Amino acid sequence: MSYLMKNRYYNQKNIGTEQSSFFSREQHNFLHFPVGTEQLEDNISCVLRNFWPTSNGPSIRGGCRRICTLNHRSNIISAFSYCSSSQQRIFLANHREIYDVTNASLMQPATRCLSGMQSGDWSTFHYTTPEKTFLIALNGQDERQIYDGNDWKSDDPPIVCEDHSDINPIYFSYGWLFKNRQWYIAADSMDAWYLPVRSLGGVAKVFPLGGVMQAGGSLFAGFSWSTESGDGLSTLCVFLSTLGEVAVYGGDNPDSIDSFALKAIYHIGRPLGKKAIIFVKNDVWIATTNGLISMKNILLQGEGANLPLSSAIQEEWNQAIMEVPTGWSLTLWEKRNMLLVSWSQNSLLSSKTLVMNVDNNNYWASLHNWFTQSYVIANDNLFFGDYEGIFWQEDISGSDDNRPFQAIYLSPFRESYSYLGVKRKACQAHISLQAYQRPYLKLFSRADYDKSYPDFFKETVNANPIINSGLWDNSIWDESQWTDNFFIRKKKLFNFSQNVVAYGNFLAVGCVIVSSGKFINDIQINNSKLLVE
Predict the structure, then answer these.
(1) Would the CA dihedral through 257, 260, 265, 270 be positive or negative?
(2) Beta carbons of 313 and 3 less than 8 angstroms apart
(3) CATH number of the domain bearing residue 458
(4) Does residue 350 lie in a domain region?
């Protein structure tokens, strides 16, 4: 599937400047396609497949390697991590069980922690006391599950809902912390419940929002959000409904109307999943039917502030909603500065993940061949569980489970300035890129928004494992070597020129690279251009 990418360029006056002898023809015969901070401000189509959309230019992703397989090879619905001051652990959940895969391998099976659950759609949050850090997991159909760093316990210490009969137990579907107080959403209701300050269990009081949320539906999620206003920095408690209604409260004591009051109500579009809410720096992003919404932009309400962060790919976003109307997930990978958007299992998008550069929401790409809805970050590394109960680490090799994958780049389309309606011809493509060794690639050109790409099968393999050796979290155990100069990783600049053919009023240049091997092919595209007639 093709991809849309909004390109924002600075320095437009220098677009036609020749930068080296590599570009030596008459300037007016070339169409230039800069990347990174020199890109144009036009909202034009582009294909970026299996590349990271970095600020310096598209960089080919690494491949994945298999870590272990769960006993029951069923769809992994949720993946989450536990992080305390002394340890990190990774958990995977299918529709019935939760597994600890922290120390799992192909030879060491994963440890089953919980079984007999009614759902695998877990949402989690951490709660820390002076003695321990707890991970609290909720799915709306079972009692809350609490992990203390050693053991999982079912609602221990228990929550007792005030003035509620035990005949019809309340199950919580979502939880969060607000000013040292735990808040919970009761499944399929308009009621939130809150515990006393600094309590893991105890008597919970109801906070009904049926009279506040006027659009209907039920409560979906909530979160604590810190923002700056005219009164300085303030922390707000936010409630979100299934229909996209947002109620914002300020204060600290929900027992008193004088110290916990409604500040505003917004409408942002239906949320696409309870794991489709992510904290990014000092903002909260929510995947909705209206796009990727920034709470900061909603608060500003200024000109252009209400544009979703996904506006550059809104057509693809809407197509994904038609195919997968719920079950979306957002994952922030700070090491790469990327946001990953994934979906529940479906017939069209199961192997596709959208990825956005966190610093520039105009830079988007799509990752393929990773069959997952469940990403998780641990020790700054990216992992996922797939639809067959297999646990993987990503961005770690040159191939996907020893199978090569294609990385495809197609520049924005640029007007070729045809004369008297005569279409111009692209006859030669040029591209420069940075890599540790010269890769194999296929250059091509396309016209008038044709986003197809040619077949190409010659694999690029990192033939010098020393390049990737001895790098912490990026090495293969028992194969990589530590060297005295391992920290010196200098890329070289490679220039390519190949004959191409394309006729049209709008032209683009592209390339196909096939990545393979045990070690990452760290290749970054710099600039490209077309010779036209």
Answers:
(1) negative
(2) yes
(3) 2.60.120
(4) no
Domain count along the chain: 2
Average pLDDT, integer, range 401-417: 94
Sign of dihedral through CA atoms 152, 153, 157, 159?
A: positive
Average pLDDT over residues 489-494: 88
Contacts 24+ apart (CB under 8 A), 122-130: 122/77, 122/78, 122/80, 122/93, 122/98, 123/173, 123/174, 123/175, 123/221, 123/274, 123/275, 124/80, 125/175, 125/176, 125/177, 126/82, 126/83, 127/177, 127/182, 127/200, 128/84, 129/198, 129/200
Give backbone dihedrals phi and psi of 310, rounded to 5 degrees, phi first.
Answer: -95, 15
Measured in degrees and rounded to the nearest 5, phi and psi for residue 8 equal -115, 115
Which one of 289, 308, 327 terminates a domain? 308
Q: Which of 49, 52, 38, 51 is nearest to 7 (CA)?
A: 38
CA-nearest of 438, 512, 526 to 56 is 526
Residue 112 counted as domain residue: yes
Q: What is the CATH number of the domain that holds 260?
A: 2.130.10.10
Range of the domain at 524: 4-62+406-532
Can you tell me the distance from the alpha carbon of 35 to that of 385, in angstroms, rounded to the nearest whole number? 33
SS3 221: strand
Q: Is the pTM higher than 0.70?
A: yes
For 282-317, what is each residue's pLDDT tens digit?
A: 899 999 999 999 999 988 775 456 789 999 999 999
At position 439, the amino acid (one-letter code) is: P
What confidence tier does 230 reach under pLDDT thresholds 50, 70, 90? Answer: low
